[in-house]
Structure formats: C-alpha cells, structure tokens
Fold this protein.
Amino acid sequence: MKHPLLASSSLAQVFACLSITLPLCAQSAAPPVPQIEAVRSMGTVTQNPLIYGRDGTFSAEIGGRSYWTFNDTAMRAYNVDGHNFISNTLAWTDSLNASNGIYLNHDHLDRTGVPTEYMPFTAAEKKFNDVHDPNRCTANPATTCGEDYAIWPGPIVPIPGTTLAYQFYGKVFRGGDIQGFQPLGGGIAIEIGGKFFRPVEAPGTSEPTLMWQGSEVAYADGALVENGFLYALGCQIGFLVENCRMARVPILEVLHKQSWRYYAGGESWSADPNTAVTIFQGGAAGNSVFYDKALHEYIAVYSGIFSNNVYYRAAQHPWGPWSAESLLFVGQQGATGTVNYAALAHPEFEENDGLSEYVTYVQNTGFLQQALQLVKVTFRPNR
C-alpha cells in the first residue's frame, strides 16, 4: 500500500517536503477530492429541434444568461448558405435554474431562422471555402473540392467589469482527400455588442489571427478568471493522455502574447512557454476548471480518454498541485462502438454555492448525431 503522501504528490514534491518544515509541507500537498453525496441523471439538454447533433459545450454566464459554444453542428435544415453541416454554432438560455433540466431556447440564426456560424471567417478563408464548397465547387484540381477551414470555439470568458467576453478558438483544415483534420493553431476572439471579432494576434505570420501556431501548445482547453488574471489550460496529446499545462495573463492584456506567463513549477511563472510543466493529465475535448465556493477548492472536470468515465480533481490554486484523478460518474453508453467525450461542468447553474454542480457530456447516438446528457452531482461539504 502506498504512503498517503506518495499517493497524492509527485516524487519531486515528496523530496521537497523532506527538506522543509511540516507546516510548509502540508501547504504544498494537493487536497483530497470532495466526497460525492449523489449523482442524478437529468436526461438530455433540450435544444432547437433543427439540431441533429453538435459538440463542444463550453458555457459561461453573461448578463444573467448562459451562453453555450459548439463545434461541428449537423442540422435537419439547410441554412441560407445552403449548408446543413457547419463548424460552429452558439445557443443560450434565459434561465439559470437547472433543477428541471436545461433548455437552450435561443440560437444564433440566419435570416431564414436556421442556425448559422457565429465565429467569423477572414475574407481569405471565406473565399477558399466558397471556391471549394462541394455544392458549387470551382477549385482546380477538382480533388480539392470539399476542403475547408473550420473554426472550433473553446472556452468563452466574460471580462469582469465590462459587457465584453473573450472567445478561445481553434482553426483546422480538413475535407477533400485530407484524412481527419489538420490543426493550424488557436486564437482568441473578442465579443462586443453580440458580435465576435478575430483580431490580429501574430502580425507578419501566415496565420495572423492565431496566437498559437504550428507545434505551439494552444492554451484553449479550459479557462477561468481569478484576482485579475485569466488562467488557461493548454493540453498536448501523449499516449492515451492529454498533458495539460497552465498559463496566465492580466485580464486586460489577454490579446497580447508577450504578456502571457507559463507555469514552470513551484512559485515560478516564465515568459518562455518551453518551461511550462504538466499540472495534470486531462480529458478528451476540453476541461472545466472553476472555483467551488462551498468546497473552498478549485475543481477540474473532464472526460476520460476513450472512456465513458467522467473524472474530477481538486486543488487550492488554479495551477495546483492537483489531487489524483477520481471518478465522478460513468456516462451512459452511446451508439455501438462509440465513447462519450467533452464532459464539462457549467458552474453558472450551481446550487448552494456549488454543493451541487451540473455536468454535461456528449453522447454519440448515430452518424453525425449527438445528445448532450445532463448530470447533477451533489458533493458533501468539506469538513
């Protein structure tokens, strides 16, 4: 049986603790995860009946509403551009009471009343996508027909003291003869007056709107705001794991890459992203990281890799040290041969200051069809 310290800390933490006093050692250890009182399946999130399936599911409260961002979206109707499959959509609800479920009763729509993309394309991206649109392709060679650029949104982060919000996103290249998709990088858009803009963040590069490009880790896998800083997770794929690092930046300097600092361990933050250390191994298609007021801890929630399990961790600071991975619940099995993904918490719906939290996960139910399963998790108060 492992010593408790070895079970909850890295070897580096153990050796550090051997050389300092006991109180300091206790402060550096990860806290235990809160105990679970109850887990209740709430059914699926109710959406626009035109939606056949979509994933992503980051959300945030803005002006008393809960806004949800989605990636690829399949629909039962064609929008004004002649598409029934688009790379991103936006929905929201007027109610922050989830005790009887969640109903996303609004969508970003085109003039025909069908959901349409809310994240803007640059003029060059739009021209490329139009030329290669398989419904009216004029590309040469013809084998490139169907290729397109897709914008996949990530966390949406309200800017405290304003009516604005940051929107993290990734850009990918796919379609035609391309196998899967090619990630091109990540950027941060800004929402002003209900419209989203993608500012230039890397002038002089081939992808000027992308803050992180090529092999750089994009810090767009989870985010929160604390004490004037925005903290963001950047996760990199390993063998059956997602190695997550953390960066921070003053909340009003988010769009300036030179202002970002990367957690390098201990009390150290560095301007060099290559010094960033893994703070925990996270989940498939994003992570929730938030402060739970009732538990007095930061909580991370995410999907297991190639698994229906949903996990959680706890920490006293956004950068950790984080507790060992613990099972939150097991999601319902989807269509044969599929696994769930994109488990995320939605703290804007919390009850009793966070003793009860609501979590969704994406369940594949058929070809390009997904259900957003909703689960209520109630914790026991920390003693």
